[in-house]
Amino acid sequence: MPNVIRELLKNRFSYLLALPAVLYVFIFSYATYPYLVIAFQQFNYQKGILHSNWIGFRNFEFFFKSSDAWLVMSNTIKLNLLFLFFGTIAAIGLAVLFNEIRQRIFIKLAQSTMIFPSFLSWIIVSYLMYMLFKTDAGLMNHTIEAFGGESQNWYSKPEAWPWLLTAMKIWKEAGMGSIIYLAAITGIDQALYESADIDGASRWRKIWSITLPLLAPTAAILTLLNLGKIFYGDFGMIYAIIGDNGVLYPTTDVIDTYVFRALRQIGDPSNAAAIGLFQSVVGFILVYLVNWLTRRFYKEGALY
Question: Between the CA of residue 31 and those of 22, 34, 54, what are the distances in Å?
Fold first, then answer.
């Protein structure tokens, strides 16, 4: 105990800086654990969690017996895999490009430009997308017509939206994601590059043989962490851009938006809690399973 107190006093300003994040995680992640029991109750606001009636797994039946359950689950997995795969490639690619640029003024301008979209809300991005893809005066349709094509009603083409959402996800978040990989690149021993220079390796060869292999453990760990959220749709993104456009539901409706609409109509928080618990359990199992496989075949990329 004295050692803990000594450590807190010695690095008090560092711990004070981390305190808001620690409190946020404690309140919204750990302090909410007792409320998971409402997933197995017919929750009543007046009775509270201690006196509400227990109904077992009936809240889970609300989702799994729905005709749309498998559709929204497959959409959630498919969109998250697209975001994860192409987002990782884009973030690594940007990090490598930033590392290879030697003009300091240009790299600062480029990094600021790529990171800026991360600070925009999805509401603002949804309006930008509407200006790009609206039928009558959208920039995309004007461009297509300029090259002799026919304008498209993009908001009635569900097959196009997984790719449009992926492009927007990359545009908004790849710049911020590249910072992690750029930090990993700066930690690579420069003697490796100097040895490659002596051997006459080109810049592309050094990227392929040194940079990318040494980035693989970081990419594997971040992928493992993201796999834990593969059953969670990006609600803020999907609802801001798609909203209640039922035409696009076949390819864009995810678990979170489906449960949100059901909660608005039914008003039962127990159903939402049941689906949230299901998402968390599946995410935990996926992280554990994939980490076990990673530790077995690629130890450097395992979390534990």
Answer: 12, 7, 22
